[in-house]
Write a structure and sequence with these properties.
Blueprint: E1 18-19, E2 36-40, E3 45-50, H1 56-66, E4 76-80, E5 83-89, E6 92-97, H2 102-112, E7 118-121, E8 126-132, H3 136-143, H4 149-152, E9 159-166, E10 169-175, E11 181-186, H5 190-200, E12 206-209
Length: about 210
């Protein structure tokens, strides 16, 4: 899904929202310290991809189109520039290209791939937000039962991903090499998650950016 001035992201109306205990929101400015900054990705391509991870031709074709290798081990993800691929199962992945055109990417994949595959455009049902800041791991501990230290303990240059619950909603949580975390959530939960993050991050300061 490419950017469109007539289409808005699920959290567009919360962009600029801020919460910090003891600070008057009316007096908020960018100089107020925030322990967590949430940034929602622009409208992007979200695809559910299925195929044979043991087929070298399939893996090579995906890498050629997306510019990022297909993760084949459970609980891993690969990022390169604007593209990310999250392992969901032995033959299933979530592909996200920030600000990408889902139809064009799907067409390119179908042109290169052969055999038993499935590509489903789920762009309208999901959004991606990035969490960064000194207190982001504390916020994660408040929000999910999963031990996110397993993500943080990944080897340098290695990214992991987990499908779990986040604030009682389903989500994919992934670490990034820059120390931040990506959160892939269903569009229908975006408002709930946004409000949850602002509340959970109030003790150390939290703001949402677009």
């Amino acid at each position: 899904m490419s950017s469109n001035s007539h289409v808005q992201t699920p959290l567009h109306y919360l962009h600029g929202a801020f919460n910090k205990t003891g600070v008057d929101r009316a007096l908020f400015n960018d100089q107020v310290d925030c322990g967590v900054v949430i940034k929602e990705a622009p409208l992007s391509a979200h695809l559910n991809l299925r195929g044979d991870a043991e087929d070298s031709a399939f893996c090579a074709a995906v890498a050629a189109v997306l510019g990022v290798a297909l993760p084949r081990e459970p609980g891993f993800c690969n990022h390169h520039q604007s593209a990310s691929i999250y392992w969901l199962g032995p033959s299933e992945w979530c592909v996200i290209t920030i600000d990408g055109d889902a139809a064009a990417i799907e067409a390119a994949l179908r042109e290169k791939l052969s055999g038993h595959i499935s590509i489903v455009d789920v762009s309208g049902g999901q959004t991606l937000i990035n969490l960064r800041g000194a207190n982001v791991e504390t916020l994660l501990k408040k929000s999910t039962v999963y031990d996110c230290q397993a993500l943080a303990a990944a080897k340098p240059g290695q990214c992991r991903a987990v499908q779990t619950t986040f604030a009682k909603a389903s989500a994919i949580i992934s670490n990034r090499c820059d120390g931040s975390y990506d959160l892939v959530i269903r569009r229908s939960f975006a408002d709930y998650i946004g409000q949850w993050l602002l509340d959970a991050g109030a003790e150390f300061g939290c703001r949402i950016e677009g």
